[in-house]
Amino acid sequence: MLATMRKKAAVPLAEWGSTLPRVAAKVIADADVTQPHVYLRFSADPTNLGMARRDIGDWAHALNLGTNLTQDIVLALDEAATNAVEHAYLGRSGPVTLFAGCDKSGHCAWTVVSDNGQWRTPRAGPSTRGRGLQLMAALADECDVTSTVSGTTVVLGWPIEHIRPLGGDTGFRYAQKVS
């Protein structure tokens, strides 16, 4: 499945990174793209979230990050991507861009999710929704949310001892898709 998704991205990773807020731009600039990583751009449609979750899970598995950390990363990233899909574009279409990778030291796993939409202030008062930002902050060791007139960017980070790729060739190098 990943082989079919490995299409050349319309915007190179470094170029995209240079358009992001400072924290996210630093994460992208310091990413070790010689190791497994994910760089996806997809339309803000809920049907695309499953693909994003699978790719992030495959990436974390390829790095042998362990079950608990993998689940935390997938859940936090899914929340960030879901927020972009559900809230950024209200009534219109737009892109969601996602990156997952490790820094060059191999000691931190990072995810970046960005959209070009508009920030929606969380509603006040009791609700069964609206806990996504708290959930992301609880699951990640680093959580930075930046909203500007050009969109919202979420950066999440987790310390890791070092990259411990699975023995043998997992077949996973990177996933890139633009739709």
What would your notes on this structure say?
This protein has 179 residues and is α+β, with helices and mostly antiparallel strands. It has one domain (2-120, 129-178): Histidine kinase-like ATPase, C-terminal domain (Heat Shock Protein 90). The protein is built from 6 helices and 6 strands, in the order αααβααββαβββ. It has a 6-stranded mixed sheet with strand order 4-5-3-2-1-6, with helices on both faces. α4 (49-62) packs antiparallel against α5 and α5 (67-87) packs antiparallel against α6 (132-139). The protein is globular, with a radius of gyration of 15 Å.
Could you give the topology of this structure?
Layout: H1 2-5, H2 13-17, H3 22-29, E1 37-43, H4 49-62, H5 67-87, E2 95-102, E3 108-115, H6 132-139, E4 142-148, E5 151-159, E6 174-178
Parallel strand pairs: 1-6
Antiparallel strand pairs: 1-2, 2-3, 3-5, 4-5
- Describe the sheet with the most strands: 6 strands, mixed
Helical content, roughly? Answer: 25-40%
Classified in CATH, the superfamily is Histidine kinase-like ATPase, C-terminal domain
Strand content of the residues, in percent? 15-25%
Q: Briefly, what CATH class?
A: Alpha Beta
| Broad shape | globular
Rounded to an integer in angstroms, the radius of gyration calculated over CA atoms is: 15 Å
> Low-confidence parts, pLDDT < 50 over ≥5 residues?
1-8, 169-175
- Number of E-state strands: 6
Number of helices: 6
Tally of individual domains: 1
Query: Within the CATH hierarchy, at the fold level, what is the topology?
Result: Heat Shock Protein 90
Return the average pLDDT rounded to an integer: 84
Class by alpha and beta content: alpha+beta
Distance between the amino and carboxyl termini: 16 Å
Level-2 CATH architecture: 2-Layer Sandwich
Q: What is the string of helix and strand elements?
A: HHHEHHEEHEEE
What topology, given as strand order, has the largest sheet? 4-5-3-2-1-6
